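Data card: per-record layout.
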Amino acid sequence: MSSQFKNANESPGHLLWQVTTMWSKEMRRVLEPLGLTHPQFVLLHGCLWLNERDEEGNGITQVQISQFTNVDVNVTSQVLRALEKRGLIQRTRHKMDTRANIISTTPEGTALANRGIQVVEAADKAFFDLVSDRKEEYMDILREFINHKSE
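The structure for this 151-residue chain is written out next.
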């Protein structure tokens, strides 16, 4: 016996994989015209989001972006380097921590992140419309997974 399930559709992991793959394809489709991969969009928009909410004015670091987006710090570094080469983000020395850089979006990066969020949110709305009448329940389940795995 290779599985406890009689068919693959009884496996929650298999179903999650199928839905995640479908959603990922949709994200690639809507972001491709903007010249962004999904990880590039997530980190670019995460950078913008955090900077817009930086009430203390200390600036946002690469580690903060990595933690906020839940993207591995090494992957974050590579993607941010690519975004910097494209002129979408800039790095400046942190005033307090000489080992850290402040990461911010350039005007071009801000514009692209804002265009990206429009297409991503529209695609999400269309994709998840199937469960729109159960949205709060669905969102609560997702938050429960995130909260449990983050502990």
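Known properties of this structure: The CA atoms of residues 24 and 108 lie 25 Å apart. Residues 107-128 form the longest helix (22 residues).

See the next section for split statistics.
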